[in-house]
């Protein structure tokens, strides 16, 4: 699990992570609504997806925000970038009056790192701005799937539960549709105009928020370009003369050159997610993105040679001893790798795009010479990479079905503030906190202090976020670097067949692929063999994988492919 940190970059997600930064404008191809096509609304089934005319009836009206013109326009699916100074004195107001009525709202959300105390100055200031007493139930992001499952199976469900798409496995999708409220009566069509910042969220992100034919999620818009970046300590690379690798072989050679256990230095962390990109593996955490139509046949990523090759290459990194020892532990035992990265114990780290800024801001507070940078994704053979677009939204906030209308209205008041665009007072508070407490102005630009880096982190942006934007007023160089990285990688990014669709698989298939991530991790750590994966793939096919293929093919026949 990548630490999904909320920074001034909206739209973080884990693999599609946090994540989490470009506005994808292409709509999913229309057609017959899949609720009737597969299982059918008449039969009471909520499997499939909702698209075409049915989706249009549910979607909020899109009303673009034009508060600030970007310094770096979107290109190749990149985020918009803002590099000019943010004049605090001239910030616009996007929420002229408090919409919150002073009620209390409990929110359960994932948190990567050490969560701050409940009544800290950031939470207090945000709640005062919104007019709602938000009480956080932050949970460890690394084991969040277990917590979500337990909470949804209980009778004690908070008013709001944040669920990343990569945690929507097993019984969780059906629980979402049975335990959470339909927000359509408050947001569909022109009703959303009561909440202008929510109206400015791209329609593709809202389309992804339709579950079982109802608008149920408040989305965190994600980027089109894959968001996992191989971050590296450029300051140390420059000092030691290390060159950026351009192939799998070059990467291995570099890692061996860097690693010196006696000096307490290793090359990298677990590079599996980057390997998937290097080898052109389909999708990410989203099971619909694991499927793609190739030469008339629908294939799953686990059936491709690239999938096994990526796992085997990652295994070789571990076997060569170039991976920091902490990463040999299970994901629930790894802890926070950031201090090891800061200390230079390892120099290359898979991470979400949003954490690029977070790491730089945190580390330079300790050492002004630190420079965290992002490597371009390279093809494993030294050629151009083949990348697949992430879903337009991957993290959603759901409201308890038992919540009173007053609570729902208060939740929407929270979301309308947290979805405020760059250049507004609401955006500034959400992303930087309180001046003098969480940040100071340096040459007119806000710079977070340690308290700001700790408290103004994760939290509120998970309720809802604006259209994907990258803006770090204190580090404009990093805004430019992030957007340009996306633009370069966007040139090699394409959609797979089910891009943009929110798909609910039939319950009989939902557990089919649940064990694959653990098996991947066991193989790369040397606990299992590639032959174990090959057997698991064979079992997957015979136990329902081939039938699931037929089911997805029918969705494709009815809705058309999003691939372009």
Automatic annotation (TrEMBL):
Database matches in InterPro entries: Bact_solute-bd_prot1, TAT_signal
Q: Which residues form a coiled coil?
A: none
Q: Which SUPFAM superfamilies match?
A: Periplasmic binding protein-like II (SSF53850)
Its GO CC terms are: cell envelope
What PANTHER family does the database record attribute to this sequence?
Answer: ARABINOSE-BINDING PROTEIN-RELATED, SN-GLYCEROL-3-PHOSPHATE-BINDING PERIPLASMIC PROTEIN UGPB
Q: Say which family it is in.
A: Belongs to the bacterial solute-binding protein 1 family.
Name it: Bacterial extracellular solute-binding protein
Q: What is the organism of origin for this protein?
A: Streptomyces chartreusis NRRL 3882
Taxon lineage: Bacteria, Bacillati, Actinomycetota, Actinomycetes, Kitasatosporales
């Amino acid at each position: 699990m990548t630490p999904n940190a909320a920074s001034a970059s909206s739209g973080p997600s884990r693999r599609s992570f946090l994540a989490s930064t470009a506005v994808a404008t292409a709509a999913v191809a229309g057609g017959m609504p899949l609720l009737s096509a597969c299982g059918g609304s008449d039969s009471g089934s909520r499997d499939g997806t909702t698209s075409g005319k049915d989706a249009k009836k549910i979607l909020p009206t899109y009303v673009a925000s034009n508060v600030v013109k970007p310094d770096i326009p979107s290109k190749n699916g990149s985020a918009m970038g803002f590099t000019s100074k943010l004049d605090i004195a001239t910030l616009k107001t996007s929420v002229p009056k408090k919409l919150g009525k002073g009620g209390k709202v409990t929110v359960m959300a994932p948190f990567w790192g050490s969560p701050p105390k409940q009544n800290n100055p950031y939470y207090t200031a945000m709640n005062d701005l919104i007019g709602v007493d938000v009480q956080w139930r932050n949970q460890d992001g690394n084991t969040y799937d277990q917590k979500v499952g337990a909470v949804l199976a209980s009778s004690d469900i908070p008013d709001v539960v944040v669920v990343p798409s990569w945690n929507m496995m097993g019984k969780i999708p059906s629980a979402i549709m049975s335990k959470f409220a339909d927000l359509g009566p408050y947001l569909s069509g022109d009703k959303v105009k009561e909440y202008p910042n929510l109206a400015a969220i791209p329609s593709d992100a809202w389309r992804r928020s339709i579950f079982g034919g109802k608008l149920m999620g408040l989305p965190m818009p994600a980027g089109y370009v894959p968001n996992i970046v191989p971050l590296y300590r450029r300051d140390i690379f420059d000092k030691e003369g290390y060159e950026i690798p351009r192939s799998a072989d070059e990467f291995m050679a570099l890692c061996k050159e860097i690693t010196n256990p006696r000096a307490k230095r290793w090359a990298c962390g677990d590079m599996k997610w980057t390997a998937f990109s290097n080898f052109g593996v389909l999708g990410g955490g989203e099971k619909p993105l694991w499927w793609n139509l190739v030469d008339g046949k629908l294939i799953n990523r686990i059936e491709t040679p690239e999938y096994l090759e990526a796992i085997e290459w990652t295994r070789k990194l571990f076997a060569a001893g170039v991976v920091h020892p902490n990463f040999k532990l299970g994901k629930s035992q790894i802890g926070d790798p950031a201090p090891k990265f800061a200390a230079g114990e390892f120099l290359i780290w898979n991470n979400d795009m949003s954490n690029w800024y977070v790491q730089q801001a945190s580390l330079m507070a300790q050492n002004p010479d630190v420079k965290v940078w992002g490597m371009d994704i390279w093809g494993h053979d030294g050629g151009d990479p083949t990348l697949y677009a992430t879903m337009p939204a991957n993290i959603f906030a759901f409201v308890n079905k038992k919540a009173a209308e007053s609570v729902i209205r208060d939740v929407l008041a929270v979301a309308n503030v947290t979805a405020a665009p760059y250049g507004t007072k609401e955006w500034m508070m959400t992303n930087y906190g309180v001046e003098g407490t969480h940040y100071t102005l340096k040459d007119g630009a806000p710079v977070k202090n340690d308290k700001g880096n700790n408290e103004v982190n994760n939290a509120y942006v998970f309720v809802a976020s604006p259209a994907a934007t990258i803006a770090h007023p204190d580090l404009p160089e990093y805004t430019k670097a992030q957007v340009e990285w996306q633009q370069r990688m966007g040139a090699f990014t394409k959609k797979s067949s089910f891009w943009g669709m929110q798909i609910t698989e039939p319950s009989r298939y939902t557990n089919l692929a649940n064990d694959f991530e653990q098996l991947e991790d066991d193989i790369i750590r040397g606990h299992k063999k590639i032959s174990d994966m090959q057997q698991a793939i064979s079992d997957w096919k015979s136990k329902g994988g081939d039938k699931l293929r037929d089911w997805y093919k029918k969705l494709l026949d009815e809705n058309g492919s999003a691939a372009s």
